[in-house]
Amino acid sequence: MRCEEARQLFDAYLDGELAPSLATELGAHRVHCPDCRRSLALLEVSGHIISSDRDPVSVPEDFSDRLLACVEVREHAWPARVRRILYVAGPIAAAAVIALAFLGFFDRGRDTLVAGVKVEPTHVEAGVTASHSIAPFLSAQDREAAERAIDLWIEQMQSHKAAKAKSGDSAQEPSDLTILQVLEMLKDANNNAPNPLHFPGADPNEPFGPPNGLPVDDGDVEDL
Amino acid sequence: MIVAEREATTSREREVMLIGRARAGDRIALRELVDAHKDRLFAFIWRMVRNHHEAEDICQDAFLKAFASLDTFSCEYRFSTWLFTIGYRVCLNRLRRKRSFTGDLEFSSLAAQDEAGSSAALESEEAVRVRNSVWSAVDQLTPPQRAAILLFYRNDFGCQEIARVLQLPLATVKSHLHRARVRLRELLEGLPDQDWSSFRNLSERAV
Fold first, then answer.
1. What 8-state DSSP symbol labels residue A117?
2. B109-207 in CATH: which number?
C-alpha cells in the first residue's frame, strides 16, 4: 500500500468503518511508514483529547430553575402569535395615527368655529396665521369689531372657495395664501364692516410687526 | 437482548413518556428533560461560541424553543438530536450576527482557556502543550467542521445523526469531518515529537 492510498483510508479507519482486511493492510503500512504513522497517531491522540477532556466550564447550578421560571412566564404571557402580530402591528398603528394627525384627519368630523362660523379645514392655517398677526394689537373694546372683521373674512374665504368650484383650478387655494394676501382680505373685510377697525398691518403700506419689540401674546388667539 | 440494548430501550421509552407528560404541561417532566440534557448541550454550545454567558443564553434559548414547539417533535428521533439541532441553529445565528458586527470571527484569537489545567493538574508540560494546541486547533475550524468534530468525538453521535443535527446531507457531513481532520493535522504537525510522547501509549494501543 502506498502512502496516498493509506491516507485515503484514514477517515474510514478513524470512523470505525474500515473493512477488516483493509484495516490490516493499513496497519502493516503504518508499521513501515514513519510519516503515515505520525499522521495517524496525531489524529488518534487529537480524537482522544477531544472526546475525553473535561470541560473547564459547567452549566450553572440554578440553570434548570431559571429556565423553568422562563417557561412559566411565557405560558402566562400572550400567545406568541398574538405577540408577533402586536409587535408588527403596534408601530404601524402608531405611525398611522401620527400620519393621520398630520393630515388633519381628526379635524374632519369636527366643526371649527371662528366667531360662530364654521371654517373649512383648508381655511384654518391661513386664518390662524392672520389671527396671530392681529390679536396682540387688539384692545378689549375692539375685540367685537375684530370678530366681525374675521367673520366677514370667513365669508370671503367661502365665496373664494365657491368661485374656485365654479371656475375650475384657476382660483388660489386658501391655504396657499400669503400673509399679505390674507391681510389684504382682512382690510377689505374691515372696510365693509359696520364699525371699521384700524389695526396695524391692515394697511399693506404700513410697517408691520409687534410695536417696540413686544413679545407676541398668544393668549387671545385661543379665544378666536 | 443484551443489557446495553435493553437499557437503551428503557431510556428511550422513558424519554417518550417524559415528552408526553411535558406536552401535557407537567413541570416535573420538563425538569427531568432539562436535567438530562443541559450539561451536554451547554458543553457543546460553549465549545462552539467559547463564551460562558453566551453559551448559557443560547442553551436556555434552545430549551425554550424546543419546549415551545414540543408538539411538532417526532418521537422517532432522539430528543437530544432535536435539541442539539435547535441549539446549533441558535449558535449559527449568533455567530453570523457577531460576524456581521465584527467582521470575520477569528477563533484563534479567543483566549484558549486552560483546558489541560482542568483535566490533569499533574500532567507533564508537554502533554499540557498538546492539549492546548488541540483545542486551539479545534477553535480554528469552521463552525460546521467544529460542530461535526465535537458531536462525533464528544457526544458519540454517528455521521447520520450529525447530518440530522446540522441539517446537511450525509456526504457533506463526512466531507466536513474529513476537512476538519486534515486541518487539525496541518495545525498540529508543527508540534515537536517529544510533546506527543506522553500520548505514545495511547496511540500504540489504538493500532
1. E
2. 1.10.10.10
CB spacing of A53 vs B181 below 8 angstroms: no
| ipTM metric | 0.80
- Write phi, then psi, for A200 (nearest 5 degrees): -55, 140
- Tens digit of each residue's pLDDT (9 = 90 or more) over B156-186: 898 999 999 999 999 999 999 999 999 999 9
The predicted model scores a pTM of 0.60
Q: Is residue A58 in a domain?
A: no
Which residues lie closer than 8 Å to B200 by C-beta, 6 or more apart?
Answer: A41
Q: Does B68 touch chain A (CB under 8 A)?
A: yes
For A16-71, write each residue's pLDDT tens digit: 888 888 888 888 888 888 888 888 888 888 898 998 888 888 888 888 888 888 88
Is A57 a member of any domain?
A: no
Q: For residue A139, what are the domain limits?
A: 111-223
**CA A26 vs CA A33, A41, A47: distances in Å:** 10, 13, 19
Cβ contact B56–A59 (<8 Å): yes
**Which residues, other chains included, contact A134 with Cβ-Cβ below 8 Å and sequence gap of 6+?**
A146, A186, A199, A200, A201, A202
In this complex, the residue of B63, B177, B196 whose CB is nearest that of residue A41 is: B196
A82 & A149 share domain: no
Residue A201 and residue A179 in contact, taking contact as beta carbons nearer than 8 Å: no
